[in-house]
Amino acid sequence: MLGPTSPETEPLDGIALIEATDRTDLQHLVARFASRAARHDETATTSRENLADLQAAGLLALTVPHEAGGGGGGLAAAANVVGRVAEGDPSTALILSMQYLQHAAVARSTQWPERLRAVVARAAVEDGALLNALRVEPDLGTPARGGLPATVARRTGDGWAVTGSKIYSTGSTVLRWGVVWARTDEDAPRVGGFLVPMDAPGVSIERSWNQLGMRATESHTVHLDDVRLPPDHAADIRPPAAWGAPDPVQSVWGSIVIASLYDGVARAARRWLLGFLRDRAPTNLGAPLATLPRFQEIVGEIDALLLANRLILAAAIAEEAAGGTTNSAQGGLVKHLVTENAIRAVEKALAATGNPGLSRDNPLERHYRDVLCARVHTPQADVSLGLSGRLSLAAAP
């Protein structure tokens, strides 16, 4: 098993690490995660065992740069691991996806202070410290749709004091840090991310996450009450207008990684369906359901949807790797197409199996609850389709 690194060891190699885990470790991890998934879904608790396994395999620092001792993995590696982990436990995969996206963004940023960049990278490599952005608010919703946050960072004599609340905070109970989206109390407010240690005085977690799907992400509400921060923990704050256009690289990464996650859920549902159809042999039939043309056709329809997903994701990842023309609009369409295909695939499996598929004794109903959550992730369908349409209509004929 691949082990964690420290500053004294050789840095991980993202591609070599993925090749190794594809052969052995990752397959074993997925099976282990799947064996734990129902229990954590039932209790709505994050699997710390899964996270410990990922750290032992060196996978929590996959997108941390080589020079910081991490894997230096790009989009292809991140999407591959997230998709595979999602086959075992999608909630773990979502927490992992946020880790990968945030560390990749920090590595690309020209705004983050070097000291902070080194601190979060070193902690991810040495002990698997988790990082996520805390952005959504009860009144604002997601900042991706515009508006100033109600969370305020107030200047103090020795830094900042942050007060506010964030909902849907994925992985809230296992995070080392939250990058909190806030506005300053200056006459001309600036907006951006403040690096908040989740164990800082004034940080509390309200256990509000009681959703239909992705229950084990513990995406609770985080309250910040006059949380004191050093001056350089204003990691990236700018005038509001400077945030008008999203980072195209981050948008593409986010769309593809999230799409890969829910494609993984659909692949897990397909795997269960195949086993069910092969094993189920009604006495009146005298043969497995897999021998019936009706079920063979349904499996073929699912295969077609997942083949389309594989080709779409592969093309988008290859284009990004080649420095091609994949942009925020195209990334949003990739996310929309892949996740809708994943939802349709699981729906077909559920319709084909009836009561057994809906039984909580089987994983298919959980896969269905989880895959439906694809629609709530940014960018949502109306944004992706509307942006693509506007760009197409504005383009020269």
Question: Layout of SSEs?
Answer:
Layout: H1 14-43, H2 48-56, H3 75-88, H4 90-108, H5 114-127, E1 131-134, E2 152-156, E3 159-169, E4 177-184, E5 191-197, E6 203-206, E7 220-229, E8 234-238, H6 248-279, H7 293-321, H8 328-353, H9 355-358, H10 364-371, H11 381-394
Helix pairs in contact: 1-3, 3-4, 3-6, 4-6, 6-7, 6-8, 6-10, 7-8, 8-10, 8-11
Description:
With 397 residues, this protein is of the alpha+beta class. It folds into 3 domains: 14-129, Butyryl-Coa Dehydrogenase, subunit A, domain 1 (Orthogonal Bundle); 134-243, Butyryl-CoA Dehydrogenase, subunit A, domain 2, CATH 2.40.110; 248-394, Butyryl-CoA Dehydrogenase, subunit A, domain 3, CATH 1.20.140.10. Helices cover 50% and strands 14% of the residues. It contains 11 helices and 8 strands. Strands 1, 2, 3, 4, 5, 6, 7 and 8 form an 8-stranded mixed β-sheet that branches. Helix 1 (14-43) runs parallel beside helix 3 (75-88), helix 6 (248-279) runs antiparallel to helix 10 and helix 7 runs antiparallel to helix 8. The model is unreliable at 1-15 (pLDDT under 50).
Short description:
With 397 residues, the protein is of the alpha+beta class. Helices cover 50% and strands 14% of the residues.
